[in-house]
Design brief:
Number of helices: 8
Structural class: alpha+beta
Helix content: 25-40%
Number of strands: 6
CATH architecture of the largest domain: 2-Layer Sandwich
Largest sheet: 6 strands, antiparallel
CATH topology of the largest domain: Beta-Lactamase
Distance between the termini: 37 Å
Number of domains: 2
Shape: elongated
Length: about 200
């Protein structure tokens, strides 16, 4: 979770200055400033207060509802933050967590290189500026035996303008994986918005 972004987003939705927000979550204005600036991580008590606010239906954003739908999904899916080259995992479904563990970033996922290459190619082609509608790739995980996946990538934007990659995975056979990679250089099909 990007706590700096979470604090900034919650403060904007509540229309609070840092001091008032600090009182709401039970800490000092200095601590809120440091968390929002990315200079400190919140304590477990502050995390609990932030999560309670983030999940409050009265102030929850559409993007937070989307994040919650991923967390409760029975399917393999995850949300990646594209603002950092390690591609932090913002959230993931329980089936995805069971598959790749509690990695905090795609860079920490064994055999995540293929997906990282896909996302890097998408960012280079305009994923984070709205030019790409979606993409489909294939991935071989590090399981024993390995499993093969079709990955659909979709750009998502939160309420404060940050871009994310929403990835949904469907298990495929090794034959389908090899065929997809053979038909599409690097195994990635990109659908772009066409200019008017």
């Amino acid at each position: 979770m990007d706590w700096a972004r979470t604090v900034r987003s919650l403060r904007q939705r509540l229309r609070l200055k840092q001091g008032a927000f600090a009182q709401m979550v039970g800490t000092s204005q200095t601590t809120v400033s440091r968390i929002e600036g990315g200079l400190a991580d919140p304590t477990p008590e502050i995390i609990a207060a932030l999560e309670k606010l983030r999940k409050n239906p009265a102030i929850r954003s559409t993007f937070d509802d989307f994040v919650a739908s991923i967390e409760h999904s029975p399917y393999h899916c995850l949300l990646l933050d594209t603002d950092n080259e390690t591609l932090p995992i913002e959230t993931m479904s329980e089936p995805m967590r069971a598959r790749i563990g509690d990695a905090r970033a795609l860079a920490n996922v064994r055999s995540g290189e293929e997906v990282t290459q896909h996302i890097t190619a998408l960012i280079d082609r305009g994923f984070s500026n709205g030019r790409i509608e979606s993409a489909v790739g294939s991935w071989k995980d590090a399981g024993n035996p390995p499993q093969f996946w079709q990955v659909v990538y979709s750009p998502m934007r939160d309420g404060i303008g940050s871009w994310y990659v929403y990835a949904t995975l469907t298990q495929i056979s090794e034959t389908e994986y090899e065929a997809h990679r053979g038909e599409h250089d690097g195994g990635l099909i990109i659908t772009s918005y066409t200019p008017d």
